[in-house]
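Field log, afternoon session.

UNIT: design team B
ACTIVITY: writing a sequence onto a fixed backbone
BACKBONE:
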């Protein structure tokens, strides 16, 4: 199968202006994801990165986070993150629904493509980037 590179539109990056991306957090998400053969998941506030156990019955194919892990800090969470160990960073239909239901952006890291996708439920757009 032929690899078709993602198209990056610089005008879309303005959507990221209100998100404080901590490069150390991004590097940690990437490093942890690369070392796991299952989806990792967590949340990021302006000062802290949380890594939560993936409670999915099939963690290689999906993620489920116990809401009690984040309900006390949900207002502080800037975005949730998870990895796609065996596929692209493109949000799945379940990712899109989940992000829109909780009204929080999702950051997805792909081990295969070595890139991130940031999905904004407010703008209904995905922005791809690498570090």
């Amino acid at each position: 199968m032929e690899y078709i590179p993602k198209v990056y539109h610089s005008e879309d990056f303005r959507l990221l202006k209100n998100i404080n991306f901590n490069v150390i957090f991004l590097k940690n998400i990437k490093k942890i994801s690369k070392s796991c053969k299952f989806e990792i998941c967590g949340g990021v506030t302006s000062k802290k990165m949380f890594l939560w156990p993936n409670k999915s019955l099939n963690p290689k194919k999906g993620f489920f986070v116990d809401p009690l892990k984040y309900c006390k800090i949900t207002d502080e969470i800037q975005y949730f993150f998870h990895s796609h160990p065996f596929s692209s960073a493109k949000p799945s239909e379940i990712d899109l629904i989940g992000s829109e239901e909780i009204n929080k952006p999702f950051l997805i890291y792909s081990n295969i493509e070595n890139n991130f996708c940031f999905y904004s439920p407010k703008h209904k757009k995905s922005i791809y980037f690498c570090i």
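LOG NOTE: DSSP finds two helices and six strands in the chain.
NEXT ACTIVITY: expression trials, pending approval
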